[in-house]
Specification:
- It is a single chain.
- This protein is an alpha+beta fold.
- The protein has a single domain (about 25-155), classed as Cytidine Deaminase, domain 2 (3-Layer(aba) Sandwich), CATH 3.40.140.
- The protein is about 30% helix and about 20% strand.
- The chain contains six helices and five strands.
- Strands 2-1-3-4-5 form a five-stranded mixed sheet.
- A hairpin with a 5-residue loop joins strand 4 (about 140-145) and strand 5.
């Protein structure tokens, strides 16, 4: 009974296909792919739960296999429990059963689009660190809600000398 319910209520994860099953990278994303990612982040933003700040954020991440996972921020009266849209999107990707692939460190996320009112908002430090876990080379696309002001940076530009899995590997090697 539960399996039938789950199958009936399964959602389809949006996917972008490249010719010849080519894997996506931060450097081979054309404008149509970036626009699609921004559109998914815009859509996610409409689901934000931000009754205190009214600062609604949407994020959409793109994996190397072409899957898009979008999410919105949600606030809590105990502000420390608030979770940003970027980390919600990561959690959604990691916990999704629709992926068909296992989520790995380094390079599974090739891009993220973030949409906020006013535009130009870059990920907070916590989100930069969380994203760094999966690919310091990823493209970060920051947009306003109308996609009129768009800024693109690689994550390593937003988090220079970021701490990641490689740092732990080096520390273990010294023991």
């Amino acid at each position: 009974m539960l399996k039938q319910w789950a199958k009936k209520n399964q959602t389809t994860i949006p996917k972008i296909y490249l010719p010849n099953n080519k894997k996506l990278t931060p450097d081979n994303l054309d404008d149509s792919i970036k626009e699609r990612l921004i559109l998914e982040a815009q859509r996610a933003r409409t689901f934000a739960y931000a009754p205190y700040s009214e600062f609604h954020v949407g994020a959409a991440i793109l994996t190397k296999d072409g899957y898009i996972y979008s999410a919105a921020n949600f606030e809590n009266a105990a502000y420390g429990n608030t979770i940003c849209a970027e980390r919600c999107a990561i959690a959604k990707a990691i916990s999704s059963e629709n992926r068909g692939v296992s989520f790995q460190q380094n390079a599974d996320i090739v891009a993220i689009a973030i949409v906020i009112r006013g535009g130009g908002g870059s990920p907070c430090g916590n989100c930069r660190q969380a994203l760094n876990e999966f690919n310091p080379d990823m493209l970060v696309i920051m947009s306003d809600i109308d996609a009129e002001n768009i800024i693109e940076k690689h994550l390593y530009e937003l988090l220079p000398m970021g701490f990641g899995p490689a740092n732990l590997d080096k520390a273990k090697a010294l023991e």
